[in-house]
Amino acid sequence: MGKILIPSLPICRATFNQLRTELVAFGVRLSCRINPWKIYKIKMLQKANDLSVNIGCGPFGETGWINLDIIKAPNLWKRFDVRKSLPLRENSALRIRCEHFLEHLDFHDEVPHFLRHCLRCLKKGGILRIVVPDIPKYLAAYQSGNKNEWKRLGWDLDHMPEGFETQMDILNHVFRQNGEHRYAYDYRTLARLLQKVGFSEVRQMRFGLSSDEALQGDLENHKNYSLYLEAVK
């Protein structure tokens, strides 16, 4: 249907996808305001304590966690637009994780707002674990042109997917992902932002390593091309 409809519209595919996303988000926010069952669930959650929260979990929601996403997915606590707020009271979460989510937010407006809400909801000493694409790894592979480096990042230069012909095509996909990615990160950029919003300590981590055992369950498929950070309240 989209292949027929989009060419006839006075907007590009990326704009169409963004409008569709915002329409879905509006519906989710409205439902949280008027649906009695969802209102009740939020009120109950705001009474809870010592929470483990997984934001932007997609289909990887974990048992025993408060799994939040705007899309339909298994194991969700509830669909919620976390760009606007978090359905938690202050100082109620022991840990928050968001894996390959932050790059989908606007860097100048949505990201600082989201991080401040994470800080608000965490207990003193609580940890926010963030995983994003590690852009310096991609830039190093591009600069060297080394096929093995690209393979470690999941790209075979000799067998490129349809629509990809050059290494620059790969970089643009990682940076933009058809308009879904809004910003590219390295450690210094993300650490500085976390410090600005008020986190007391920021540490660069590795796959599967954390001072909090509950935060060691990183997704294997993101291992080779991801940047891992933890910020402490």
Draw up the topology in text:
Layout: H1 2-5, H2 13-34, H3 36-45, E1 51-55, E2 66-69, E3 78-79, E4 93-99, H4 110-121, E5 122-133, H5 135-144, H6 147-152, H7 167-176, H8 187-197, E6 201-205, E7 226-232
Parallel strand pairs: 1-2, 1-4, 2-3, 4-5
Antiparallel strand pairs: 5-7, 6-7
Model description:
- This protein has 233 residues and is of the alpha/beta class.
- The protein folds into 2 domains: 1-34, no CATH class; 49-232, Vaccinia Virus protein VP39 (Rossmann fold).
- Helices cover 36% and strands 18% of the residues.
- The chain is built from 8 helices and 7 strands, in the order αααββββαβααααββ.
- The chain has helices spanning 2-5, 13-34, 36-45, 110-121, 135-144, 147-152, 167-176, 187-197, and strands spanning 51-55, 66-69, 78-79, 93-99, 122-133, 201-205, 226-232.
- A 7-stranded mixed sheet has the order 3-2-1-4-5-7-6.
- α4 (110-121) links the parallel β4 (93-99) and β5.
- α5 (135-144) packs antiparallel against α7.
- It starts with a helix and ends with a strand.
- The relative contact order is 0.13.
- The model has no long low-confidence stretch (mean pLDDT 93).
Strand ordering within the main sheet: 3-2-1-4-5-7-6
CATH-defined architecture of the largest domain: 3-Layer(aba) Sandwich
In sequence order, what are the helices and strands, one letter per element? Answer: HHHEEEEHEHHHHEE
The value of Rg in angstroms is 19 Å
